[in-house]
Amino acid sequence: MVATLVRGLASTAAAAATALVGGAVVTRTGNVPWVRRWSRTNHAGEPVTLLEGPVAVGALAVGTLVGAALGAPPSQVLAVGVAGVGSGLVGAYDDLHGSAQARGFRGHLAALRRGRVTSGTVKIVGVGLSGLAAAVVLGRHRAAGLGLVDVVVDTALVAGTANLVNLLDLRPGRAAKVVVLLAGGLAGAGGGPALGAAVGSLPTDLTARSMLGDCGANALGAATATAAAGTLDRPARLVGLAAVVALNAASERVSFTAVIARTPALAWLDGLGRDPAPGGPVSSEPGPG
């Protein structure tokens, strides 16, 4: 128990330190040509960088390696790494090459029916495959063995959570706070790297100098869900999946920002620590792509 706690704290601290240092660096390199490709404009008309996302993925990887060095179960390390890094890579592709011509699952599927493969479609497939790979790794090391139901549930939970966190990346610090809340209780069970990466991302995110984008939001959401999938029993995972599916479906018709603004407790938490400047970063693609 003590070793697990120490391992979780160490992986969290390593990821947080990496994200803090990386965030400080990328927010000071705006004039470098390749860095400008990652620049976006927020609601207030101010520039922000999406490089917080790649930094968060790097921090996640560092935290995972530290956990492995301290004796984390190989299946846990591999599953979290595959889900987080894989989802982050396809998210980065969407950050750089995505467009607003198709939004949400329905928009991307409609485009696919017309014969057009959007960057969002690539991301949906990539995140799904990353979740599937993580689910297979987890399933092979469960006491009950590999079960098709578990693989399907875990794949959907990882992919759905990755997209849900991305949907919340619409105001400074919002997505990172959600990851902190979700991963906080999983630090000793593989959630430490995601927790640390989210904590380390908050200083520049809350001040609207950077944002996670699809890359960081997808990666941290997928890694957090993978840690949960490796810890919770099947009934708990089914409940979690139902909540994730319901929220993703609701996002097609309901504005999360409007709901948060109308709910005092959520509005307080959402604004906690945020820079008082108006507006905030807009996700490069609010839905799955």
Protein architecture, described:
A hairpin with a 5-residue loop joins strand 1 and strand 2 (47-49). Helix 3 runs antiparallel to helix 4, helix 3 packs antiparallel against helix 9 (192-206) and helix 7 (148-167) runs parallel beside helix 11. The protein is 69% helix and 2% strand. By secondary structure, the protein is an all-alpha fold. It has one domain. The radius of gyration is 18 Å and the shape is globular. It has a two-stranded antiparallel sheet with strand order 1-2. GO terms for molecular function: transferase activity. Residues 1-16 form the signal peptide. This is UDP-N-acetylmuramyl pentapeptide phosphotransferase/UDP-N-acetylglucosamine-1-phosphate transferase. It comes from Microlunatus antarcticus.
Q: Kindly estimate the percentage of residues that lie in beta strands according to DSSP.
A: under 5%
* Most strands sheet: 2 strands, antiparallel
Q: What ranges have pLDDT less than 50 throughout 5 or more consecutive residues?
A: 278-289
What's the end-to-end separation, in Å?
40 Å
Strand order of the largest sheet: 1-2
Tally of discrete structural domains = 1
Inertia-based shape: globular
How many strands in all? 2
Number of helices: 13
How much helical structure, as a percent, in the residues? 55-70%
Rg measurement, Å: 18 Å
Order of helices and strands: HHEEHHHHHHHHHHH
